[in-house]
Amino acid sequence: MLRMIVEKHLKTWRVPPTRFGRDAVGDPCFVFDLRDGREPRPRTERRVRAYIAAFEQERAQ
C-alpha cells in the first residue's frame, strides 16, 4: 500500500526516487528498497505519509 502511494507521488510530482528517499527519511535507497519488497517500520511509514501530506499541502498553496 505504501509503495503505491509513494509511486503515485513520484509520478505526479516528477520527483526522482533518490530525492524522495533522502528528503522523506534520509535514505536515498528507500524507494528502491520498497520496490524490492522492503516493509518499513510503522514509524517510518508515518514519516513518509506525513512528508507526502506536507509536500502536497505546500504545493497546493
Give me a quick take on this structure:
The protein is an all-alpha fold and 61 residues long.
Question: Would you mind describing this structure in some detail?
Answer:
By secondary structure, this protein is mainly alpha-helical. The chain is built from 4 helices and no strands. The chain has helices at residues 2-13, 17-25, 30-35, 42-60. The longest helix has 19 residues, at 42-60. It is globular and about 35 Å long. The mean pLDDT is 97.
Which terms would index this structure?
61 residues; mainly alpha; 75% helix; globular
| CA gyration radius, whole angstroms | 11 Å
Shape: globular
Distance between the termini: 27 Å
Element pattern in H and E: HHHH
Q: Please estimate the helix content.
A: over 70%
How many β-strands, per DSSP?
A: 0
Tell me the fraction of residues in β-strands, as a range: under 5%
Low-confidence stretches: none
Query: So how many helices?
Result: 4
Structural class: mainly alpha
Query: On the 0-100 scale, what is the average pLDDT?
Result: 97
Largest sheet: none
Topology:
Layout: H1 2-13, H2 17-25, H3 30-35, H4 42-60
